Amino acid sequence: MADHNFDVVILGGGSGGYAAALRSAQLGKSVALIEKDKLGGTCLHRGCIPTKALLHSAEIADSVKDAGHYGVNASFGSIDMLGVNKYRDGIVDRLFKGLTGLVGSKDITVVAGEGRLVGPKTVQVNGENYTGANVILASGSYSRSLPGLEIGGRVITSEQALQLEFVPNKVIVLGGGVIGVEFASIWRSFGAEVTIVEGLPSLVPNEDPAVSKALERAFRKRGIDFKTGVRFSGVEQHENGVVVSLESGDKLEAELMLVAVGRGPNTAGLGYDEQGIAMDRGFVLTNDRLETNIPGVYAAGDIVPGLQLAHRGFQQGIFIAEEIAGLKPAVIDESGIPKVTYCEPEIASVGLTTAQATEKFGADNISTYEYNLGGNGKSQILGTAGFIKLIRQNSGPVIGVHMIGSRVGEQIGEAQLIVNWEAYPEDVASLIHAHPTMNEAIGEAHLALAGKPLHAHA
Ligand SMILES: Cc1cc2nc3c(=O)[nH]c(=O)nc-3n(C[C@H](O)[C@H](O)[C@H](O)COP(=O)(O)OP(=O)(O)OC[C@H]3O[C@@H](n4cnc5c(N)ncnc54)[C@H](O)[C@@H]3O)c2cc1C
Predict the structure, then answer these.
(1) Confidence band of 1 (pLDDT split at 50, 70, 90)
(2) Residue in 22, 35, 36, 43 to alter for ligand 1 test, most ligand atoms within 8 A of Cβ
(3) In the CATH hierarchy, which fold is given to the domain comprising 345-449?
């Protein structure tokens, strides 16, 4: 059996793994990157990119349907799913080629095959051992289901949903989190009747309650039905559809049911347990420097408890590479990670919610301000409603920004700089925001919170 030695051995070539590989190579380390499927992982092939392509097709469908309102004569025919999928695949293929080329141009040994940890710092692939002075576990996640709920036939996860070659007439989305509301949004724009079932009391329950309420209002207006605070009890499949039972006694019928109840860590059977790596319910436990209980073994991405987002994985991969190289990078603050949900209307947030801020600082020590997009010219031009909600520590920095409205995802860049650089509203108020942009709404919200509102009531 051949043995290969590297400075860094990485198991999994998704967002976390390939970012670690690229940064390690930049820092002069010898790197083996082990991937059983395709470089780019979930995000590129089954997650962020393909879903956002579908959401863009959905936005175009909505624009065509609304064209008359803007004085444009156009009529909506139908959705050609094969055309939509071709457009989406073209984007994924181009990015995949780019990524493969980029990794190939660096001094990175890409090993194709399924790896398994056979020693604390040794991964076996195709019968060969790859031993690293340091090992990075980045094996990602899979679509979870509920106990007793089997995936198959008309009960699908996001993976099968992305492969559909037709638009379902009627679909039930189990789970009102990010993935659930994004698919609900896509299918509604494509013409489906959609019902979301969410066990918690609101849609997007991890967002500030004001945002959840606004999304519910917007979805109602769009004709997306949802049932919150109600639990799923079972599903029966028949030739033409599914019958979903809820604990309330209600029964819902549809052509398909999407299960979007979260993602589990992909760690079973990979040898992590056997090598003594501390785990909790399948997640790999690390300290805040992303090192496991075994020195020199690190973990990145969705297998580490916390937000399951591609940019968190990238940042963790870069962090670990720099840590291994002795650069002592600053610890990643989870509450500073920006989040975007790309449904229509979009949601973007960073920092603490009102509840988190109240718990941390006390209700008397924070102030909030909600700037309504009704006062923002560009939002009126685009025909979107929504708001930007700011939370500040009194006489202190902005600690949370929560936004809802079409395209607000594009505003998260400034919001995350404000929160992560601990800017005061007064600092932001003196910065100039171009007119007329949606970005101006961020400026206006800060002007108001600094006590000098322009296009807003105090
Ligand atoms: C539908 C959907 C939409 C999403 N949208 C967004 C979004 O808009 N924005 C965002 O930030 N995040 C989004 N995400 C989440 C994002 O995709 C993940 O957070 C990200 O991909 C996690 O990166 P990772 O490196 O931890 O894992 P992954 O990307 O899952 O990569 C893990 C890799 O490891 C490989 N692997 C696993 N086991 C082995 C083994 N034994 N041997 C060799 N290789 C192995 C896998 O093949 C895979 O390529 C979305 C996810 C889904 C499912």
Answers:
(1) low
(2) 43
(3) Enolase-like; domain 1 (3.30.390)
Instruction: Give the separation between CA 458 and CA 454, rounded to whole angstroms.
Output: 9
Nearest residue (CA) to ligand 1, atom 17: 43
Identify which of 10, 15, 286, 311 to mutate to test ligand 1's pocket (most ligand atoms within 8 A of the CB).
Answer: 15
How many whole angstroms separate alpha carbon 196 and alpha carbon 183? 10
Distance between CA atoms of residues 85 and 369, nearest Å: 41
Of the CATH numbers 3.50.50.60, 3.20.20.140, 3.40.50.11060, 3.40.1080.10, which one belongs to the domain with range 3-142+264-334? Answer: 3.50.50.60
| Residue 53 identity (one-letter amino acid) | A
pLDDT in tens, 88-144: 999 999 999 999 999 999 999 999 999 999 999 999 999 999 999 999 999 999 999
Over the stretch 367-388, which tens digit does the pLDDT of each residue have? Answer: 999 999 999 999 999 999 999 9
CATH of domain 155-261: 3.50.50.60
Q: How many of the other CB atoms lie within 10 Å of CB of 424?
A: 17
**To 5 degrees, how large is the angle CA 279–CA 285–CA 289?**
160
CB 111 within 8 A of CB 124: no
One-letter-per-residue 3-state SS of 315-330 = HHHHHHHHHHCCCCCC
Say how far apart CA 27 and CA 6 lie, in whole Å: 14
Q: What is the pLDDT of residue 455?
A: 84
Q: Compute the CA torsion angle 20, 143, 52, 377 (nearest 10 deg).
A: -100
The two structure tokens encoding residue 71: 């004085």
Following DSSP, what letter does each residue of 275-342 receive, concatenated? TT--EETTEEP--TTSB-SSTTEEE-GGGSSS---HHHHHHHHHHHHHHHTT--PPPP-GGG--EEE-
Q: Which atom of ligand 1 is nearest to the CA of 15?
A: 25
The closest alpha carbon to 20, from 298, 332, 268, 309, belongs to 298
